[in-house]
Amino acid sequence: MTEPADPASATDDPARLCEEARTLAESGAADRAALLFERVLALGDTPYRARAALGLAVVLDDAGEVARARDADRAAIATGDPEYGPRAAYHLALTHERAGEPGGAAPAWRAVVDFGNPAYLPPAHLALARIADDEGDFETARGHWEAVVATGDPEYAPPAAHDLAQRLLERAEPAAAQRVLTAGLRLIDRAGAPYAYARLATLLGIAYLDQAIAAFHASLGDPSEPADPEVGPLATELLARTLPLRGRGAEAGEVWRRGLSDPGVAGQVRARLRRDFGGDDEVADPADLWWEPVVEQSVTDGTLPALAGEAFGALDHMYALLAVRYADDPRERRPGETHEVLGRAVDVPSDYPWGPLLHESFAERLRLAMGTPEG
Fold first, then answer.
1. 206 belongs to a structural domain
2. What average pLDDT does the structure give for the chain?
3. What is the pLDDT of residues 201-260, one digit of tens each?
4. Mean pLDDT of the 102-107 span
5. Which residues constitute the domain of residue 324?
6. HEC profile for the chain?
7. The pLDDT value given to residue 358
8. Which one has a higher pLDDT value, 279 or 62?
9. CATH number for the domain including 29?
10. Rounded to two decimals, what is the model's pTM?
11. Assigned domain for 265 exists
12. Do 21 and 37 touch, CB atoms closer than 8 A?
């Protein structure tokens, strides 16, 4: 005669309990779901222990019971289950990151990596790279970033390539940055992710700029030695005009000054420096125009916009002084006021570095106009 089935064994089937708990959790009955997951755990070392522990961790975390959720995650990790173990470690890491606890997140992310499940390796390596980077440990961060890029994951590899390339550029390794960015760009669907593509493409352009700067520097050689007359002027211009694109305007000024002080190439360098200047007056020799050295120096120093601002500001102020009085009724002007206003207008540029040169030019023009002997 067949023995009747044990009622407890039917109600404690771990597979059925896990499925019921999942259904309850999805319907919002988290408390009842947690009880069922706990019943599975009470059954001991069953094949469903890891699944139940992770399920319990999730519902407890949603309920705000973070400490208990973390305990459940650790229980799932301890089973060594190749699917639910890394998922639990992933969940555990997120609870620590959400709380701003990188010290707690790092061991959990390392547990994810130790499981070796390819589905969870990219986010784990990326998180570990950023933690190491925040701690100033570049080599460790670099290893994790490279591991992410090596997975070819289209979601996580591009940001890893971007972060690593930025650090490589900061460390003056543009060629290495270029290789990383090129690999990252191959993983992006440009039409589907235009902004991600643009970020990496822009950084790749910067890497090329840094390589070009290094090459131009190398072509100029030792600053104490004369520049090559064949390529020196060209390399000087290219280097001086590229450096400001990387925020290195002061260095660009030094490059121009070096070229201008080298007798062998100074003439060609000056011609390149003045490439964008307007046409010279056919009558006046540019060397006799007081503003030419001022403009040339501002180009060398990268301060031409500031000089233009000063000049237009002075012109605007002078015009305002003169125009306001000109618009007044002549009958309301007191004797001598015109000369007073003119004097104030002429004095406007005095506070600018180039003001004295303008005053000297004005004095000389006035002397010539009045026929006053030079003295």
1. no
2. 87
3. 999 999 999 999 999 999 998 988 888 999 999 999 999 999 999 999 999 999 999 999
4. 96
5. 289-375
6. CCCCCCHHHHHCCHHHHHHHHHHHHHCCCHHHHHHHHHHHHHCCCCCCHHHHHHHHHHHHHHCCCHHHHHHHHHHHHHCCCCCHHHHHHHHHHHHHHHCCCHHHHHHHHHHHHHHCCCCCHHHHHHHHHHHHHHCCCHHHHHHHHHHHHHHCCCCCHHHHHHHHHHHHHHCCCHHHHHHHHHHHHCCCCCCCCHHHHHHHHHHHHHHHHHHHHHHHHHHHCCCCCCCCCCCHHHHHHHHHHHHHHHCCHHHHHHHHHHHHCCCCCHHHHHHHHCCCCCCCCCCCCHHHCCHHHHHHHHHHHCCHHHHHHHHHHHHHHHHHHHHHHHHCCHHHCCCCHHHHHHHHHHHHHHHCCCHHHHHHHHHHHHHHHHCCCCC
7. 74
8. 62
9. 1.25.40.10
10. 0.76
11. no
12. yes
pLDDT band at 66 (very low <50, low <70, confident <90, very high): very high
Task: Locate 273 and state its tokens.
Answer: 């420096």
d(CA 354, CA 135): 50
Domain end marker among 140, 166, 192: 166
Assess contact for 291 and 278: CB atoms under 8 A.
no
Residue carrying structure tokens 């988290």: 30
Read off the tokens for 59: 């519902």
Specify whether 304 is located in the same domain as 162.
Answer: no
Residue 243 domain-assigned (yes or no)? no
- Identify the domain boundary among 166, 196, 215: 166
Q: State how many domains the chain has.
A: 2
pLDDT in tens, 262-280: 999 999 999 999 887 765 5
Radius of gyration of the chain (CA): 37
> 312 in a domain, yes or no?
yes
Residues 300, 153, single domain; the answer is no
